[in-house]
Each structure stands twice: as C-alpha cells, then as structure tokens.
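in:
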C-alpha cells in the first residue's frame, strides 16, 4: 500500500520509486531491476521481505524471521495490541417473562380464532344439504358473507375482478377472494377434523367446489394446523409401536402353541390326521415368533431412558416378562415322538381297528345268516366292486385329500383337522356301503 497524497490511497504491488502498480511480485522485481538499477539495496531488501513473508504465510516456526519481517515493515506490536483487562459484570436483565407473555397472548389469539373456525366448520359439515342449489344458501346462513359491492381488487393477489375473475367468499370467515386464491378442503377431511373418532377415507379424486369447502389461505392454514396437532397427538411413539408389535406376536403364538400340543397328542395317539413334518413346521413357526418377540423386547429395553425413572423400570419389566414368556411358554414345548414310536402306535391302532372291523363283519354275517338261512349269497357286491371307481364317495375323498395337501403346505392346520375329520366320516360311510352291499 502507498499513499500518493492526503486524499488518494493506492493498493497493490507498487513500485516505491515511481508508484506504478505491477500486479505481481515477479513483475515488480523485474521492473525495479530494469528501470531502477541504482536502487539495488532497496531491491535486495524487497526480496528479503517477500521471502520472509512467504515463509511466515507457510506457517514457518522461525521467530527470528517474524521479528525481522516486523522490523522491515516498521511494525510495532505495542502500538497495535493492548493488554486485556478483566471486564466487570454489568447489570443483567431476564426477558423470559416478557417472551412468555408475548407467546401466550399470541397462542391464545390463534387458539380462540381456530376454535371459532372449528365451530363454524362443525355447523357446515354436519347438516350440509346434498342439493347443490340449496348448499350456497345454507353456507350463507351459517357464516354471513361480506358485502363485496365496493371491493374491486382481490385482497390476496390485488388483481381486479371482472367477468372472467369472479368474486368468491371463504366459507369459514366470509371474506372475499378470487378463484386462484381459493383453497378447497375435502368434506371427508373436514368431518374427520370435527369428529376425530370418524374413520378417514382415502382421497382418490381432486378436491373442488363440488366435493370441498372453499376457504381462504389463512383459514385453511389454521384448519391444517389443527389437523396436524390431532395427528401428532394420536401418533404412536417408536416405543409404543414396538410394544404393540410384540403383543401382536404373542397373540399369534398362543393359538400356535395350542395347535402344536394338539398335533403332538394326535401323534402320540396314533392318529393319521397329522404327520411329523407338520408338527416340525409348526414348531419352526413358534420359534420364529419367539425370535421376533425377543428382538422387540430388546429394542424396548434399549430405548433411551433416565436410570431409575418410571419409564426405565417399565421397559425392564417388559423385557423380563417377554423373556419369561418365551422361556416358559414357547421354548418349553412338548418333545416330539420318533418315527419308530409313531409307526408302532399307528400299527397298534390299525390292528385294533381291523379287529373291530372283523367283529362288525362277523356280527353282520350272523345277522344275515339268521335272516336268510339257507339262501345263496347275493352277487350284488361283485357288481359294486366292479363299479367301485364310479362311487361318488371316492371322488369326494380324493378332492378332500387335495385340499388337505394345500392346507398343509400353507401351515393351516386348523383347516387340516376339519378336512381330516370329514375324510374319516366319508371313509366310514364308504365301508358301511361295502358291508351293506356284501350283505
């Protein structure tokens, strides 16, 4: 920096002799060597200053270079830096009460205005006529409209009203606005805002003046804010959502455990309703439910909470209850029988059934012999056997077997049990028909 006179201040890479701006250090050096050869001492000092300045800029930790550079530029640190003195604390004033008062008055004003709009909205949507011709008159009776005879411009966009830009009114405050500045509130959403217990329907079509209420932007923002407050109030936290999911898995596990015990008992009794693969599939399903319950309970107990507070104790209790439920109800299941045990029990059951069938046949034969003593045996059973494939009972049994296969594949064992019962009844009826034909 150089000063030409008292008023003009020059900046840049200036020649100390002719005050010319050379734009860079290299140009300044070459200029001084060519035009001011007689001032070589000044040139040497400039090179030293530029070199030392470069080292200082590159964070060179050389204290001597810094002192030399300060002396070259004739800087005195004592002239520019003053020792710091301890500042005494002055008068303080808290503005918290003032801010709270301003905020309370503002919130109260918005709350009163929003409540008035909700009262008007309740009156509008509860008894709104279905006929569009009577709807405008009804809306004017609920909320009086402002007289727009002297209003020539839209208060929102300041555009003039004419034949193509007609005047409209807000249905909640009665103010005047144009169509472009209108916002439409869906009637179903309006009813859900007035009555939070009302189930919301999904909006599938565009909202217009036929299926919505015309509102100004100010009223619409207040109603939308109330809707957001309701949604936030009814929204579930992450902790509550995890707990609900855990309870849902527990509710699914109860009938699964009961069905598993029933299937195990069926295998021990030698019944053919279920097989070992069905019971193993049900056991795997219960294991997955137990794993899901364990993961959710760990998420609940890991949720941030102050130690020793009621929330922390509640989270620990939920975790302990879930662990106890998994250990006592889901993991302590009845041990399955082996394939050999199942085959042995079924063989014994089959032999008992065969002995019972033999006894029934002998009893039927004795009754037939007493009834038709000395008569030749009928040959109708031969015809029945020859046309056995056309028996509708066999067709129904094959259809039910197909349904049982599909139900087992989808682990719907309640349906398997019902179908197996029907199949047993059909088999019993089929055997009775064969015995009657033989008799």
């Amino acid at each position: 920096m150089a000063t030409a006179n008292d008023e003009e201040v020059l900046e840049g890479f200036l020649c100390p002799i002719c005050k010319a701006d050379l734009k860079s250090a290299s140009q300044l050096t070459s200029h001084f060597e060519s035009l001011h050869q007689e001032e070589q001492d000044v040139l040497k000092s400039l090179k030293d200053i530029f070199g030392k300045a470069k080292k200082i800029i590159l964070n060179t930790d050389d204290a001597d270079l810094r002192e030399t550079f300060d002396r070259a530029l004739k800087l005195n640190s004592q002239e520019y830096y003053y020792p710091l003195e301890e500042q005494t604390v002055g008068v303080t004033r808290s503005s918290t009460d003032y801010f709270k008062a301003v905020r309370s008055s503002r919130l109260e004003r918005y709350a009163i205005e929003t409540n008035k709009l909700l009262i008007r909205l309740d009156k509008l949507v509860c008894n709104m006529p279905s006929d569009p011709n009577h709807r405008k008159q009804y809306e004017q009776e609920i909320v009086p409209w402002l007289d727009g005879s002297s209003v020539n411009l839209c208060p929102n966009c300041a555009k003039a009203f004419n034949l193509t830009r007609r005047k409209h009114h807000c249905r909640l405050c009665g103010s005047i606005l144009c169509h472009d500045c209108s916002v439409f509130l869906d009637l179903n959403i309006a009813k859900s805002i007035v009555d939070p217990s009302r189930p919301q329907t999904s909006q599938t079509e565009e909202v217009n003046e036929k299926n919505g209420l015309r509102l100004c932007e100010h009223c619409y923002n207040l109603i939308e804010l109330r809707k957001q407050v309701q949604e936030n109030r009814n929204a579930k936290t992450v902790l509550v959502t995890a707990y609900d999911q855990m309870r849902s898995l527990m509710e699914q596990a109860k009938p699964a455990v009961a069905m598993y015990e029933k299937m195990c008992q069926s295998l021990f009794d030698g019944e053919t309703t279920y097989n070992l693969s069905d019971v193993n599939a049900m056991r795997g399903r219960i294991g997955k439910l137990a794993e899901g319950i364990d993961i959710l309970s760990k998420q609940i107990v890991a949720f941030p909470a102050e130690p020793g507070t009621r929330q922390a104790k509640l989270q620990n209790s939920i975790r302990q209850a879930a662990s106890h439920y998994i250990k006592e109800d889901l993991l302590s299941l009845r041990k399955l029988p082996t394939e050999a045990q199942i085959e042995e029990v079924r063989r014994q059951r089959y032999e008992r059934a065969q002995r019972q069938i033999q006894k029934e046949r002998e009893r039927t034969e004795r009754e037939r012999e007493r009834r038709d003593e000395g008569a030749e045996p009928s040959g109708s059973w031969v015809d029945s056997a020859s046309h056995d494939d056309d028996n509708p009972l066999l067709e129904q049994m094959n259809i039910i077997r197909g349904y049982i296969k599909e139900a087992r594949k989808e682990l719907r064992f309640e349906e398997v049990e019902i179908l197996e019962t029907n199949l047993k009844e059909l088999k019993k009826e089929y055997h009775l028909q064969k015995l009657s034909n033989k008799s």
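note: Residues 339-371 form the longest helix (33 residues).
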